[in-house]
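Before relying on records like the one below, remember that each one covers exactly one chain. Contacts with other chains, cofactors or solvent are not represented anywhere in the record.
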Amino acid sequence: MRELRDLTNETITLQVRDGAERVVQIERMDSHQAVRTFIKVGSTWQLPHTSGGMAIMACLPDDEVDRILSSPIQQLTPQTDTDPESIRKKIEEIRRVGYAVNVNQNRMGVCAVGAAVLGEGGCPVGGIGISMPETRFDENRVPWWGKQVSDTAANVSSLL
């Protein structure tokens, strides 16, 4: 995580599954920039609220995704996607590219790019995210961020 933070100069987060439908923040490596995101360790969210959570969902079988999406998704910001069909489409894209993008989904002004950490048998156990203020989010850099966070998640997965 430290290497990813130093490479991107953004805040790096680590979340693990908290039951079937949530993630909990267990670690954070803060950016050295004066303006940065802050995510309190111990914070919890529904899976669709974070890039790491969406990346986790993309690694789950469709029936488990359907079960998760059968529960209401809390509207955290005006941009929180609470529509199950829209979330399913995003999951298909995450499966295609290997990382998730979150723009203002759980807090306004905060963006993230995340990838799943896989445990034994390829089951998703957590997610790593690159979190940044919206003012530094650049769509053109998303593929690069996606590759960096995916590579880091794969490295962590190989240690489990």
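Residues 142-159 form the longest helix (18 residues).
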